[in-house]
């Protein structure tokens, strides 16, 4: 049987750990960039469905939404940069790299939009896979472990 002292100790440890993990991970979801990325995740799933359904009108609208969110995200600073305390030239260098990946991703979605407008859904699907690779590249380079 546990003593009252051990029970309170376990309770304090449990509450402390839950506060630590909640505090450690809450910051990532509270940024504008995290909100942008969640919007993109939802839009990408919908775009994939639209392309599989050959719904060019919905897919075209979805791509426009994705490009708008990417343009907004381009002006954000990844939390990882804040977490690492980047400043000055190093921050500027990493922001330029981040913006370059966003720009490349926008270019892919402009090409997806063009393929949809031409009725070439097969090409749009291929380009969407390329966009998925860009997402992986961006996450490996700029996403904090949250």
Protein described:
The chain is mainly alpha-helical and 146 residues long. It has 2 domains: 1-30; 31-142, Up-down Bundle (Four Helix Bundle (Hemerythrin (Met), subunit A)), CATH 1.20.120.10. Helix content is 84%, strand content 0%. The chain has helices at residues 4-29, 32-52, 56-74, 79-83, 88-117, 121-142. The longest helix has 30 residues, at 88-117. The relative contact order is 0.11. Residues 6-26 have low confidence and may be disordered.
Describe the secondary structure blueprint for this structure:
Blueprint: H1 4-29, H2 32-52, H3 56-74, H4 79-83, H5 88-117, H6 121-142
- Broad shape: elongated
N- to C-terminal separation?
38 Å
Mean pLDDT: 81
Residue runs with pLDDT of under 50 for 5 or more positions: 6-26
Number of strands: 0
What structural category characterises the helix and strand content?
A: mainly alpha
Provide a compact summary of the structure:
By secondary structure, the protein is an all-alpha fold. Helix content is 84%, strand content 0%. The chain is elongated, with a radius of gyration of 21 Å.
């Amino acid at each position: 049987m546990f003593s009252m002292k051990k029970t309170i100790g376990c309770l304090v440890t449990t509450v402390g750990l839950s506060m630590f993990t909640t505090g450690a991970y809450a910051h990532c979801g509270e940024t504008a960039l995290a909100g942008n990325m969640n919007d993109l995740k939802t839009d990408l799933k919908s775009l994939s469905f639209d392309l599989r359904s050959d719904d060019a009108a919905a897919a075209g609208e979805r791509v426009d939404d994705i490009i708008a969110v990417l343009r907004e995200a381009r002006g954000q600073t990844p939390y990882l940069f804040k977490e690492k305390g980047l400043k000055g030239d190093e921050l500027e260098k990493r922001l330029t790299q981040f913006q370059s990946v966003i720009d490349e991703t926008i270019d892919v979605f402009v090409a997806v939009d063009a393929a949809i407008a031409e009725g070439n859904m097969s090409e749009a699907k291929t380009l969407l896979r390329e966009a998925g690779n860009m997402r992986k590249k961006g996450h490996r380079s700029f996403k904090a472990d949250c």
